[in-house]
Amino acid sequence: MAVLKLCRSKLRHNYNHIDQVLRERNIDWGIVTKLLCGEETFLKEVLALGVKEVHDSRVTNLIAIKNMAPDVQTVYIKPAPKQSIPDIIKYADVSFETELDIIRLLSEEAERQNRTHKVIIMIEMGDLREGVMGDDLVDFYEQIFNLPGISVIGLGANFNCLHGVMPTQDKLIQLSLYKQIIEAKFNIEIPWVSGGTSVTIPLLFNHQMPKGINHFRIGEALFFGLNLFTGETFEGMHDDVFELSAEIIELNEKPMIPIGMLAENPSGESFEIDESLYGKTSHRAILDVGLLDINPKYLIPKDDGMSVVGASSDMLVVELGVNEQNYKVGDVLNFNLKYMGALSIMNSRYIAKEVVE
């Protein structure tokens, strides 16, 4: 069985690095745990870091978090579905909202449960996923700020989640100005402007982060140390908190091009023959992991002499060239992962999950 490993020391190193940078700038932040898919072994490692706030997009994951750490502030990071409202009020201290009718229902449920539910209003800033249009914000706020059981604690925005729109200093200044408009219009104070995510961290390091942005939600940078502007690893951070290990179940020297008439494979892929490879061979290994678990494009071999050929539902094929490492059947090959690859692996019940030091 393939194994996904989480390195405890590397996770803590990345956490301490981010925490120091944000605390020096008086910025509050929480960890986005949706990547972990409610896996309690890994969630315990995150909670052991001393985090005070956890963000997730699944109510079941928030339930697990609340059961493990009742005092941690839980944040539901998408607009609430109607059928989930009772559980969101019970298990999410905060939610991101964009719909008046939903906030009214949250208010009614909060009253029933004798709770105050905190809300961050998400504003559309160009990526065209969730968000209230800026021109509608004042009217939107006017209709909810006096609702019983509801406390608006912030305005927020997402970037790079759907159409790849990147954050800029100007966009974040605009987000901060919305807060000032609301505060001046209604003579109230909104504590947070939540414009910080993993994709905005480079602006922070480059001293381009407006002072009004005082809340961050961070997942990808914590687990992968990735600068989403450059595609490189942030200096002083680890890119291999996660590692996938998979066993070689076959290893043979084979031709480098397929033999016979070609058609689409079950994944809908078609292959073209590279005639320069006729007569050439390479060592090919089959690993005990496949498309049910991960798309091969999200795998990064740790051995530079290895390349991923492709995968079927349950098997991954890698090319080893002349096999300089003298791999054999039963050996384990290791891979770093991209974010979407780790997400797939976390969702696979066929992959074991382990914590290593």
From TrEMBL:
Assigned GO CC terms: cytosol
A GO MF term: alanine racemase activity
Q: Which cofactor does it need?
A: pyridoxal 5'-phosphate
- The Alanine racemase N-terminal domain covers 9-225
Q: Which organism is it from?
A: Pontibacter lucknowensis
Q: Which domain of life is it from?
A: Bacteria
Which InterPro entries does this entry report, sorted A to Z?
Ala_racemase, Ala_racemase_N, PLP-binding_barrel
Name the chain's protein: Predicted amino acid racemase
Note the PANTHER family from the entry: ALANINE RACEMASE, LYSINE RACEMASE
**Keywords on this record?**
Isomerase, Pyridoxal phosphate
Coiled-coil regions, chain positions: none
List, alphabetically, the SUPFAM superfamilies matched: PLP-binding barrel (SSF51419)
